[in-house]
TrEMBL record:
Source lineage: Bacteria, Bacillati, Bacillota, Bacilli, Lactobacillales
Keyword Transferase: yes
InterPro entries: Glyco_trans_1
Organism: Ligilactobacillus agilis DSM 20509
PANTHER family, per the entry: GLYCOSYLTRANSFERASE
Protein name: UDP-D-galactose (Glucosyl)lipopolysaccharide-1,6-D-galactosyltransferase
All residue ranges annotated as the Glycosyl transferase family domain in the record: 170-318
GO molecular function terms noted in the UniProt entry: glycosyltransferase activity
Keyword annotations: Glycosyltransferase, Transferase
Length: 352
């Protein structure tokens, strides 16, 4: 049986990447010997319990960078008959250099869950090209890989898998016109998630209520800003929620996202799978998911008026939940895993 080792760094244990990893590894364990290598201990480890018991998990414990380098290097050098799928750019670079130095034969596939350009977390230009092949989770990331000079035959656009789900029941009709929005993800005021724009957008809309699911070290700053806008009574911070879709028992009006950039938003896909439409900023790649007027509405980043107009549109449109759910059929497991299996087999059997 072929062996695959998935290499990951800086996972919190609460994000969409972890959700995708569980689905993909639990699927591939039927065909491959799977190892998951973590270069840090996630803050939350409950997601690891959802992995098939046959998946081996290796975790580096500690903060010493030299010891971490030794840990990763040993995995590349002493894992026999193993190929690697890396969610870490640094590990791609390490693996490539060790392969050349010690004349190893393993293959390295990149699989990134963030935009490659609209971030300062890693150096894409001097790491990604060292992988042999690449999985792209969005059309934007595929184009970014092409812009780095990577041949198109070495890139497979696979998106991300999302389970089909039951449509969440709508609330009992009430005479008022309250709009109930929710956000789920890292609670970041001015960075990637751009919650300042979200809070500002709803501050002049007296009938809009917001539930915030998630946490970070900026949560107090976000709560302070909500208080400054006098919307504290309409914004509820729930903190980290291990099972969001058991928590949300009544269908909200919409998911709202004001992100400056994303890879492929799993919470957006999950919401739509439950029949919930979305309001989103037009970050690069948003249209991999959003179909205007069918499963949601979008607005241009920074345009607060357009954001409030989108909120009004979603409230008035009363989009059909079944049509919302069916709009992302290409992400559901049967089609996704068929394409993943074909792409993986092609990349692992490819020879220069």
């Amino acid at each position: 049986m072929k062996k695959l080792n998935f290499l990951c760094s800086e996972l919190s244990g609460t994000g969409g990447t972890e959700t995708v990893l569980v689905k993909v590894l639990n699927h591939l364990i039927n065909k491959y010997d799977i190892t998951l290598t973590l270069s840090n201990e996630p803050e939350k480890s409950e997601w690891l319990e959802r992995l098939n018991s046959k998946v081996k998990v290796l975790t580096f414990k500690g903060n010493n960078n030299l010891a971490k380098l030794v840990f990763i290097s040993k995995i590349f050098l002493f894992s026999s008959n193993t190929d690697f799928i890396s969610l870490s750019p640094k590990m791609i670079l390490i693996g490539n250099k060790l392969r050349k130095l010690f004349k190893k034969k393993y293959r390295i596939i990149s699989w990134f869950h963030y935009s490659l350009t609209d971030q300062d977390m890693f150096d894409t230009e001097h790491t990604l090209p060292y992988a042999d092949s690449h999985f792209a989770i969005s059309r934007v990331i595929r184009q970014q890989l092409l812009d780095l000079g990577i041949p198109k035959e070495n890139i497979s656009l696979i998106y991300n898998p999302i389970e089909e789900a039951d449509i969440i029941p709508r609330p009992v009709e009430t005479p008022n016109k309250d709009v109930h929005l929710f956000y789920a993800g890292r609670v970041i005021l001015d960075g990637q998630k751009n919650l300042r724009e979200m809070f500002t957008g709803i501050s002049d809309m007296a009938n809009v209520y917001l539930d915030v699911y998630g946490t970070s070290d900026e949560i107090k700053e976000c709560q302070k800003f909500a208080k400054q806008l006098n919307i504290s009574d309409r914004v509820i911070f729930h903190g980290w929620t291990p099972d969001l879709w058991k928590k949300i028992k009544v269908r909200p009006t919409a998911l709202i996202m004001t992100s400056k950039y994303e890879g492929l938003s799993m919470v957006m896909l999950e919401a739509i799978a439950h029949g919930i439409p979305v309001i989103t900023s037009r970050f690069k790649g948003y249209d991999d998911i959003v179909q205007e007027g069918i499963n949601g509405f979008s607005y241009s980043l920074g345009d607060i008026q357009a954001l409030t107009e989108s909120i009004n549109k979603i409230a008035e449109a009363n989009l059909d939940a079944r049509s919302v759910k069916d709009s992302i059929s290409c992400y559901y497991p049967e089609k996704y895993f068929e394409h993943l299996d074909e792409s993986l087999e092609q990349f692992l059997n490819y020879t220069n």
